[in-house]
Design a protein that fits this description.
Chain lengths: 260, 377
Amino acid sequence: MNIVVLVKQVPDTYSERKLADADHTLDRDSADAVLDEINERAVEEALQLQATHGGEVTVVCVGPDRATDAIRKALSMGADKAVHVSDAALHGSDAIATAKVLAKAVGTVEGVDLVLAGNEATDGRVGALPAMVAELLGLPALTHARKVEVDGSTVKVERETDEGVFFLEASLPAVISVNEKINEPRYPSFKGIMAAKKKPVSTLAIGDLGVDAGEVGLGGSWTQVTEAAPKPPRAAGQRVEDEGDGGVKVAEYLVGQKLI
Amino acid sequence: MPAERMLPTTEAEDLLSLVREICQQELAPHASNWEAESRFPREAFRVLGKSGLLGLPYPERWGGGEQPYEVYLQVLEEIAASWLTVAEGMSVHVMSCYALATFGTEQQRESWLPDMIGGELLGAYALSEPQAGSDPAGMTTRAVREGEDYVVNGTKAWITHAGVADFYTMMTKTGEDEVSCLLVPGNSEGLSAAPRERTMGLTSSPVAQLRLEGLRVPVGRRIGEEGSGLRIALSALDSGRLGIAACAVGLAQAALDEAVRYAKERKQFGKPIIQFQGMEFLLADMAAAVESARATYLEAARRRDRGLPFSRQASIAKLVATDAAMKVTTDAVQVLGGAGYTRDFPVERYMREAKVLQIFEGTNQIQRMVIARQLAR
């Protein structure tokens, strides 16, 4: 079974993240860049499925040159090869533009049975990209999976949302996005790190995929960030002096806020 | 702020990122509690082993990482910055594989080395005795040949991983003035660990005497010729000293980071204390001590990697780095003031841990002796 995993390099959630003043795109120099944690889980799931069903695991990434670090991490975990789409024209692409490029990039991999992705990146948090890619590829989309089982040419997924758990089934090929409960990703081993540098990475520009520069980037995107403001710091709370009636005052406050 | 490093290869950079990730997720969150409870983190060594970190300096053909000391020691330093017990244990383990890797026969290495450096097993090194510390030739543990076995009797002292190790690289007398090296399985009959020493620091690390009472070791488990044990032990010392130097720099870096963090947050007289010159000079001296100690051990490591003599440089690195760790951890307590003296902050633990670095793997007085004797040549 051949599996493609869509991965994204994101600013480390531990570092201070900000947008560039000029065009409100990510200020990539301001933060350390890492393979998104949810993608590590997607790679882990692919490797576990591969251990049972065989085949190849290919990592597909759209991102600037330095995304090679994130790709190498996925390869050092055990993925077999990678496709990296890097092109200055992609700067500022929104989710739909990115999905178009990803769908074309997936198309360069032969005999794909399954496309795995994280359900939502920790930076943009659009959370719709896997479904967009599925739509563009004409494949079933099974999102927010906490469990994936492949049996022959069908795949069963436990889809978990705030409302409950759905038990879904689809025929392969399909696109699946995973949530944080799917697994605990492995650490790469040093052997994996050494092996990763010998694994094939095909680096493509959008021209190689037949994508026109006008369809992507800030200009080709349907949406654009026009302004951004950081979340204001939490306002100071209301102070209650305890003069023997502190409990009553706290209760009155909570009643006033309709919390009790 | 993590140490800024110049690493020789991309894979070394990826290796260091992996090590930082493991430190952040698996080691740092547990260090303070486990040290307070004197719990030995055996599982942490398995995590390191699974990622191939317990055999980094050994050849790939035996399952090692074939990394230069320049890289291996920086891995050790990062681990020490998160949890010294684990870094020291890793250094002991790596040194306990050295005799077999360097002096074993092809057949011996093929039989045991892949398992020893493969990550599942943990080693210990048994050289010191109650009456033979700085002077290892004074050991009294005796192995007597009986058929195809040695029968060993005696007591080893200050053994890190005593009672929990899967194998011991053990030095014992096999004649009046003759020391030999034996590779002893941890579950051997006649080998037992005394109750743990109640140490000032490194309280998670089990250190104890090892009792050898009628311990039978097959002659085939002797590493090197009969009588070559002291030479084997001495040849490992320089590399072991570099390991301790790297551990010391890691510990000092952790103390510096904590001191800087605190000095930025703590306000007195209306501003963060880091803005007072008294603090500035203290912190600057700490940073200078950390970075110069790092440069010193890396210089020695690069000499080792190029096959140049590095004995004097290793002793200088051990001396400079461990004295720096003592000074920097002590000053870190000073920066944190009363808070630093409490067990709510890690710096008092760092200070207790630093002390042993000046004592083991050759006391700093022995290091000065080694350095001075080379000068006198």
